[in-house]
Amino acid sequence: GQQVMQIPQYQHVQEGEDFTTYCNSSTTLSNIQWYKQRPGGHPVFLIQLVKSGEVKKQKRLTFQFGEAKKNSSLHITATQTTDVGTYFCAGPGLGTYKYIFGTGTRLKVLA
Amino acid sequence: ETGVTQTPRHLVMGMTNKKSLKCEQHLGHNAMYWYKQSAKKPLELMFVYNFKEQTENNSVPSRFSPECPNSSHLFLHLHTLQPEDSALYLCASSQIYPNGDTEAFFGQGTRLTVV
Predict the structure, then answer these.
(1) What are phi and psi of B85, to 5 degrees?
(2) No. of H helices and E strands in chain A?
(3) A95/B31 Cβ within 8 A
(4) Residue to test with chain A: of B43, B56, B57, B103, most A Cβ within 10 A
(5) How far is A42 from chain B (nearest CA, A)?
(6) Contact A69, A52 (CB under 8 A)
């Protein structure tokens, strides 16, 4: 079946350092979404990418969709303690509304 | 903050108990979902309801029984669970557009412990 993997599984960074998480799907995706889950919280939608090679920015966050639409990345510039949490990518499975979530990357930011 | 409300927030139940989780969405969405989140599988899709019809059952054991009486409410009935079913159960809703675009809004979750 379709699988969505993320690396790394965990990442500890010093505040101010950059952070990147990578998402890889076993199948081509029509779009990809990113979510953030704070410790003790629930996943919150961040963004959706649709076009091949698309790059979107939200303040210090940069999201990229691969040319083959099978991978994506999230890059955070100059991390802050508020960036702590688990970042998930999600891509649609066989049905367009059946989103398969990636394994997640847990980010810890050390002050 | 969230337009998706789940109750209870915490639940401890014995293996012979029967309990139900409730989810209500106030966003006018046409699809609702149950996810299981545990250390082993971060976000595992269990059930999908689109326009009140169950369109997905992701090989979930029969001890989990979903019910969607209308587009705003979703239940997960639990009976004879196992300790390994202990997890965070998340409900989500979304509006599915003709082009397939959708964005999931999650509830706060129910932390379930089976003893």
Answers:
(1) -85, -5
(2) 0, 11
(3) no
(4) B43
(5) 5
(6) yes
Tell me the C-alpha distance between A70 and A30, whole Å.
9
B91–chain A nearest CA distance, Å: 10
Q: Do the strands B10-13 and A10-14 form a parallel or antiparallel pair, or are they unpaired?
A: unpaired
- Tokens 């639409």 appear where? A69
pLDDT tens over chain B, length 115 residues: 569 999 999 999 999 999 999 999 999 999 999 999 998 777 998 998 987 677 777 689 999 999 999 999 999 999 999 999 999 999 999 998 777 667 899 999 999 999 9
Place of tokens 């979703």: B74
| Interface test with chain B among A42, A101, A107, by most B beta carbons within 10 Å | A42
B57 to chain A: nearest residue by CA? A98
SS (H, E, C) B24-73: EECCCCCEEEEEEECCCCCCEEEEEEECCEEEEECCCCCCEEEEEEECCE
- Distance CA(A18)–CA(A20), nearest Å, equals 7
Of B100, B105, B107, Cβ closest to residue A30 = B100
For B56, which of A41, A45, A95 is closest by C-beta distance?
A: A95
Specify whether the CB–CB gap between A93 and A73 falls below 8 A.
no
3-state secondary structure of A104: coil
